[in-house]
Design a protein that fits this description.
It is a single chain. The protein is an alpha/beta fold. Strands 3-2-1-4-5-6-7-8 form an eight-stranded mixed β-sheet, sandwiched between helices. β5, α4 and β6 form a beta-alpha-beta unit. The chain is elongated and about 65 Å long.
Length: about 260
């Protein structure tokens, strides 16, 4: 009997599958992937020996809902027919209330992960539904913890989580693009600009995490008065960089709220 079915064989579903097996959360033979697309289903089965890949939900087991928001109603309808024991949803913008209304007396946990989960470096937040208890949160945290860190929040905070960490990787990628382009414009060869940008972002992120120093302290440590870094940071200050980032996160948060209200 499988212990978990993953509804949706997309990138996030496969990332979770790989993380669960790699970390020993369960064996491949304990997992079922539900994917209606024949080619994708065959690809998942070939890439993950032992995993059962099927075209519809199986009865009486825990489930992860890893489909796009517009597919959620159909997926929940199919799940309801087989009686899942509990559900973890990573569908963006789909509220706990709407899922509980569809599933009835099934505990539901809602989560917002992000794409670095694809390499086991994700950041996710989880929020419980009205029927979800501490054991259900522990279960959800164990699953998402296989591919990154997990924090617990109230559902009302998931929109902010979406604006910060859910969309956050795109902001970092945009910064990377800009740094690479700036390096080239100042005379670096493209491959050199790429290599230096990648190493700089990776190194800075590791230093932030591993030094346990506040970001403000690390920034000050590399900024000598009247030096090159101070000159560069001065431009960011003049451009109201902090206010710009606040506006970016606020816009993404507002859109998450809108999606939760309209479903579009």
């Amino acid at each position: 009997m499988p212990v978990l079915q993953i509804i949706g064989g997309g990138k996030m579903g496969e990332a979770l599958l790989g993380g669960l097996v790699a970390t020993g959360w369960c064996a491949a033979t304990d997992l079922v992937v539900v994917e209606p697309d024949d080619a994708r289903r065959d690809s998942m089965a070939a890439a993950h020996p032992g995993v059962l890949a099927v075209d519809g939900p199986v009865a009486s087991t825990d489930a992860i809902l890893a489909v796009k928001p517009d597919v959620v109603p159909a997926a929940l309808g199919a799940l309801r027919q087989v009686g899942p024991t509990r559900v973890l949803s990573i569908a963006a913008g789909v509220t706990l209330a709407s899922m509980e209304a569809e599933l009835g007396s099934v505990p539901v946990v809602r989560a917002m992960p992000n794409t670095p989960a694809l390499i086991g470096a994700g950041a996710a937040a989880i929020a419980p539904g009205t029927l979800a208890g501490s054991e259900d949160l522990d279960w959800a945290e164990g699953i998402l913890g296989a591919v990154g860190i997990v924090v617990r929040v109230d559902e009302a905070q998931l929109d902010v989580v979406t604006g910060l960490s859910g969309s956050g990787p795109a902001y970092v990628f945009a910064l990377a693009e800009a740094l690479m382009a700036a390096g080239e414009s100042q005379g670096l060869e493209p491959e050199v600009a790429v290599a230096l940008t990648e190493a700089t972002l990776l190194g800075a992120a590791r230093l932030l995490v591993e030094s346990h120093e506040p970001a403000a302290v690390l920034r000050a440590n590399v900024t000598s008065p009247g030096g090159t870094t101070a000159a560069g940071l001065g431009v960011l200050t003049e451009a109201d960089f902090g206010d710009l980032i606040a506006a970016v996160v606020a816009a993404a948060t507002a859109r998450s709220v809108e999606l939760g209200q309209t479903g579009k």
